[in-house]
Fold this sequence. Notes:
This protein is mainly alpha-helical. It has helices spanning about 5-40, 40-50, 50-65, 75-85, 85-110, 115, 120-125, 135-145, 150-160, 165-175, 180-190, 195-225, 225-230.
Amino acid sequence: MDDLKxxxxxxxxxxxxxxxxxxxxxxxxxxxxxxxxSEPQNLRNWVERNALWSRLGFMLLTAIQVIVAVIPxxxxxxxxxxxxxxxxxxxxxxxGIVLGSIAVFLFVRKFGLRAVRVFFxxxxxxxxxxxxxxxxxxxxxxxxxLIPGTPKDIMTYCVGLTNMKLSTWMVIxxxxxxxxxxxxxLGGDALGTKNLWGAAAIFIATALLxxxxxxxxxxxxxxxxxxEGSS
Length: 231
């Protein structure tokens, strides 16, 4: 077996083991998660009984959610606000998101485009035209991660395909994600304190911001298209 075939085999094996590990983790965690989100009080009871492990466990769950890109992150962030309060819930969510984002970055940097295709079709990857704009990549990525509503799951995977440094990526996935995390944890905290009007106001405001974020994401991608720029 020549070196090229050996590298392809090892790459396929590495991706396969990664996906298998995620599948096992998802299978083990699925039932407890459904229980937590269908009966929110269960989550608070768990936190009260397990002060340390509940926090470490929640960060781990959040990291897995980032890695398994098809799982939406907002329910986790709302649950964090409900169980831990807005401030601590934001910090715990950020910790898990940073861990998961670094793992994804290193995974994609190791295995390349094939790793991204595990979760996203090529057509969706091709739509992220701003990733080709190396001069403005850091600024655009920071802006898009700053605004609620932008598709952060696929962007998290595709950033590893660029020449962005890991240190830069750590700043973006830490600081730039605070607003979108905070809006969700504030809503969860309001639900936990039975402030239903406050929760409704937060979620409506977040929905409006998300619509603006999607519009901005679409506009940035259009203006980053080399074909449109040359016309």
